[in-house]
Amino acid sequence: MDAIKIVQDAFAKEEAKQHPEFRAGDTVTVHYKIVEGNKERIQNFRGVVLQVKGTGKAKTFTVRKMSGSVGVERIFPVNSPFIEQIEINKTGKVRQSRIYYFRKLTGKKARIKERKMN
Amino acid sequence: MPGLIGKKIGMTSVFSVEGKNIPCTVLEAGPCVVTQVKTEETDGYAAVQIGYEDKKEKHTTKAESGHFKKAGTVPKKNVIEIDSPAEKVGPGDVLTVEMFNESPWVTVTGTSKGKGFQGVVKRYNFKGVNDATHGQHNRLRAPGSLGASSYPSRVFKGMRMGGRTGGNTVTVENLEVMKIIPENNLLVVKGSVPGAKGSYVIIWK
Lengths: 118, 205
What we know:
With about 120 residues, chain A is mainly beta.
């Protein structure tokens, strides 16, 4: 077996959270744990997935949301212990696996057709 | 220092208990075979010679072949001398990654990646000319003055200029040991290690 994978498995925690599968174009809400001093709270980040990158334990994904008129992007590692939950709000139908073109779209153009779940 | 010969496998990252994403390097360490034990009486100094990775008999000279046969092992690609890791080691003994079990830190020596012929900005971290305007043209990454004029009328030896960069022996000290996996001879250290994937490294205890 690949030595890197052996190492990743050796570090993997048993109670690792299982997140649902999603891909670019989907709208997700990431419930992210934030530690302030010694207080913890959960922050929600809802937006469109631009890309899912990497494999195994090093997998990350980028979520873009519009905060007013300003676009905000955030990259999350899928296996981050700070992610409490990933909620899929909408599944989108897009042709590319990395929808960078979505950044330039605004208004009515910035809509994604819904993908039928079967 | 006692140590082992190994190989850089590659890098990955793991999450710590606090949830921090820590970059770490995976190294294959050993198994190394003791090929010779040097003593004060016979050689004038004490050391242990170890070998790593088998090589074919046809790539081995007869002299080398005899040397390895004496130790009761097959010819090895890499051979170094280390300080004795234990009180008693003899030829043919196998040293494994488990020798790092009690060490919280290791030191790694490797050969850095070759960069070819590079200018002074990459090679010596010169700043170059930071202006693109004010009369500057074509000299954004130039070294600047090499010295004074009529005296000494020459460039001093050792003046830093462009040239072959990288490919040097580099040692990184005190890398934190994250994990040891003896079944696969793997050692995981925090941070980076000089060299490309698959290059040979020496891991010092």
